[in-house]
Amino acid sequence: MKYMALLYDVEDNGPEYGSPEWGPYMARWEAYHETLVKNGIEFSGEPLEPSQTATRLKVRGGKTETMDGPFMETKEQLGGFYILDCKDLDEALKYAALCPAAEDGTVEVRPVMDLGGA
Amino acid sequence: MRDDWGRLLAALIATLRDFQLAEDCLQDALTSALDHWPRGVPQNPQGWLMQVARRKAIDRLRRSKALDQKLPDVAVLMEMDRADSEADAAHEIPDERLRLIFTACHPALDEKTQVALTLRTLCGLTTGEIAQAFLDQDTAMAQRLVRAKQKIAKAGIPFEVPQKDDWGPRLNSVLTVIYLIFNEGYSADNADLMAEAIRLADLLDDLRGDEPETMGLIALMKLTRSRASARVDGAGVTVPLDQQDRRLWDHQLASDGRDLVSAALRRGRPGPFQLQAAIAALHSEAAGFEDTGWHEIVLIYDRLCEFTANPVVRLNRAVALSYLVSPADALDAVNALEGDLGQYQSFHAARADLLRRMQHWPEACWAYMRAIELSRNMSDRAFLQQRLDCAKKEAEQKLGPSPTGRMKRSNAKASSL
Lengths: 118, 417
Fold this sequence. Notes:
The complex is a heterodimer of chains A (118) and B (417). Chain A is of the alpha+beta class and 118 residues long. Chain A has a single domain (2-111), classed as Alpha-Beta Plaits, CATH 3.30.70.1060. Chain A is built from three helices and six strands; from the N terminus they run βαββββααβ. Chain A has helices at 22-38, 89-98, 100-104, and strands at residues 2-10, 43-47, 55-60, 63-68, 76-85, 106-111. Chain A has a four-stranded antiparallel β-sheet with strand order 2-5-1-6. The two termini of chain A are 12 Å apart. Chain B is an all-alpha fold and 417 residues long. Chain B is built from 21 helices and no strands. The radius of gyration of chain B is 26 Å and the shape is elongated. Chain A binds chain B through residues 1, 3, 86-90, 92-93, 111, 116, and chain B through 66, 69, 106, 108, 154-158, 160, 162, 166.
């Protein structure tokens, strides 16, 4: 089963690129990826640029309306995601818990809808 | 029939891998039994129900639109059906209830949902009965259960007994659910719910023994229940522990509970349920309230605080301390918990009792009033009202005439604590 892990965190929580903390910070993510590979968990994922770079849009009556981010006054913002291919929810939760974002912020795990295709 | 419900349902879920389908088919089979059994009960009623439920599942799966996805299931079911007919359906239905308990109490489900799902699937309570026990609307409870079954299916919550790494916390959530069921039964004086909780814990102990915390929970429930008939008087008013007629306690049940907690503690793996049971055991051993082993009780509370950050445990420790040392010493400890427990009846009731024993009447009155406001239980409310009336009388005697005016002033003082 495929699961999406949505990573929420307070923005600017991580260290600056090039700062002394940057190396150890990235090492945690690399270690996480290694764990996934080592355990044969297929995954993909990307970090996202901060929420002030976001744009929302909706089309109403053929007209596109756009909105400049950030959108919510909540402290934690969506900062990245993974797609994890796991046996069941227990396995997905186990690997979501190992993600550095789980310690720094909050991870939401959602099953990817199974449309019955190959 | 209710005894068989959980066992049959668990076996069906193990085969069908679908909570809703299993429940619907078992219900169909039971309806069928109402038609057929008056003409002669089958030799193996469980096997009969199982076979009928499985055939109902084949029918339902064939009718369902997602036919091609489910086809392998149908093939497996038909094979099982054939094998069963040949073996004359006499062989034992495998007991899958342990998997069912752990799935129903999965931490990805809300605690209240865990409780409701456990009562529905393992105990066979109807949605209406569960709604009633939790003072919920039938429709809201039905919706909660439907959503839970959908989440189990869609999110891929496994129908499995957890692995060694997860065992401790997962067992703990099962035990917590059972204890919630028991407490709901105890506070609503619902003997059926208390019995269901004890039965569930016994089942858990049968299916996976050598878990001292399971034994501790059974002991705790037995010891608590042993005092049930002494805790309310003929007029429906709560009787506090120090006033209870100990001859009304169920001494056999208490003795079972004590044996069980001793056996559990000998395993050398203490936990919160064993420790709470040990405290209840000490109460049950005392011939009278004044013979209670407060020193040991306070020590056990200290140990308990290492396991849990629950402020109620600290409140109870303070109450025990009031009998070991003094109400004044305990009052400081209780007051320190206001931030955590200020909205709870037990906090104000405990405070009121300490103030009563210290003869600080006006403050005691204020605390009793707060406790009454927050009281959900009629018996507790009646008891607190009696104590409030006494405290008011004392306050009036001490303060002379015009008590209401004086009361108001002292209330204002107390509320600014």
